[in-house]
Amino acid sequence: MYENQYLISNFVVNLPEEEFLSFEFIGLHFYVNRKLNYVLHVNGGDELCLLGFMVDPFEPLAKNQDVVMKLNRRINDIESAIRMTAKLPGRYVLIFKVNGSIFSLTDPCAFRQLYYAYQDAQLVLSSSPKMIMDAMNWIPQIAKEVTSIIKSRWYKKAENFWQGDQWYDKRIKKVMPNHFLDINKRMILRNSAFFELTDVDEDPLAYAKNNLKGSLSAISQRYHVIQPITAGWDSRVLLAASKPIKDKVQYYVFQTNLSPRAPDIRVPEKLSKELGIKFSIIHTDKLKGDFLSIFRKEHIFPRILPKTRNIQYHYLNHRHQNIININGNGGEVVRCYYGIKEIVDIPQLIHTIHLRFRDYLAEELAQWYSEAIAICKNHGISVLDLFYWEQRMGNWGALYPFEQDIAIEEFSPFNNRNLLLSLLKVEKSRRQRPNFKFFGDLILSMWPEVLCQPINPVWGAKRRFKSTAKRILNSVIKRSK
Asked: Can you list the domains of the chain with their CATH numbers?
C-alpha cells in the first residue's frame, strides 16, 4: 500500500517496515516507500533530501546522486534553490535545510505531489492525502458545497479537475507549481525567482531541441523506456526528440475503448512501419475486482476512468521492472490551451475557462488571480497560460502520475521550468492552434521523417495535411543532401 509515496512528520508514525524505510533527517521523521528513489546529501550545515528523480539534460550521464550533489553545493537560500532546479526536469520533491531554515519545493508542474497539514504542534507532509489522514488519525471533513461538486456530472466529466491549493478537506493544503513551502513558518509562498530564465543563451527552438533530446537521453541511462505514440502534437514532438535513443525505446499505444480505425491507432501504426521502430498496440482488459480493490485503497476519492485500465495493464506487466513511461504532460502549457485572449478581470477569466460552481470555486480563483496578474505583467506571461500551468497541471495533471504510482514511474520531459519559460516567450501566433507552427519547426529540426503521417487528422483535412507535411519533409530532406 502507498507504493512510491512518502510521508514526513515531526512526530513518530507507525508504518510497516517491509514497505517503508524510516530515518531522521533535518530534524524530521522521513518514511519513504521502498520503491521510491531518494538521495540524502549534506554540505557543511546544509542538508538536502531528494524524493523521486531529476535529470540534467545537458549532462545525461549524471546519476541521481551526481545531480543532487552538484545542486546542494550551490544552494545558499531559497532563491538559489529555485534557480538551480530551473533546468532540471524530473518528478520530485526537495526538502532542504539552509541557514537554519527548512524549505520544500516540487518539480515544475508538481507531478510529484506535496500536500501538508498541521494541528497544534504536529506537522506532516506527504504525496498522499490519505497518508496524511492516517497519520493524523483524521476522518475526512468535507463541506456540503464540496460534496455537491464531487458528485456532479460536470466534475466527473472533467476528470476531477479541482482548483486552488485547498484539498477537499480544508485542513490539507497542496504546494502548487511555482510555490514553495517554508516548513518553519508553515506557509506556502511564491518567489519571483520561479519566473527567471536561468543560463539560457540559445534561441527557444535550439534550446527546446537540445533540452528534450538531452532529457530523454538522460532517462534512458537509468530506466528501460516505454513511450506512447498517438496522433497528437506532444506525442509527435517527443517521438522526434527520441531519435537518438529510438533503438532503446519500446513504443506503443493503448487501444482502450478505441476503434482500430481511430486516428490514435492508425496514425502511430503507419508511422512506426515507415520509421522502422519497435511498436505495439496494447489491448487492455476490463477492470478486475482484485485490482480495483488495491487501487481504491490508495485514495479517498478514487477516480475510475477508461484509462484506469491502462494502469491495470502496467500493474500486471511492469510493476516489478525498472521501466519508466514517457508522458507529454506539460506540453499544452505552451500551446495556448485556453486561447490567446488578454484577460483583464475575473469575470472574463471565469467565462474563458468555463468555470462551474462559481459560488464556491470563484473565491479560490480570485485569490490565485490577485497574485498571478502581477507576475504575468512583470514577466510577460499570459494569464491563461499560467492558469494552465499552475492550476490545471498542478491539480488535474498531477492526478494520473499519482494514480500510476502503484504500477509504474513516469517522466514528462516538458516538466522543465526553463523550457516552459523559454517557450512561453515565443510569439503566441507560432504556438497556437490549428497549425502550432513552432512545434512543427521543432519536429523538423529533430526528426523530419516523423511528419510522414498527419498530426491529429480530421475528416476532410487529412489528405491536405498529409500532402503539406510530405511536401515540407521532402524539401527538408532535399536541402540536407
From this structure: 6-195 (3.60.20.10)
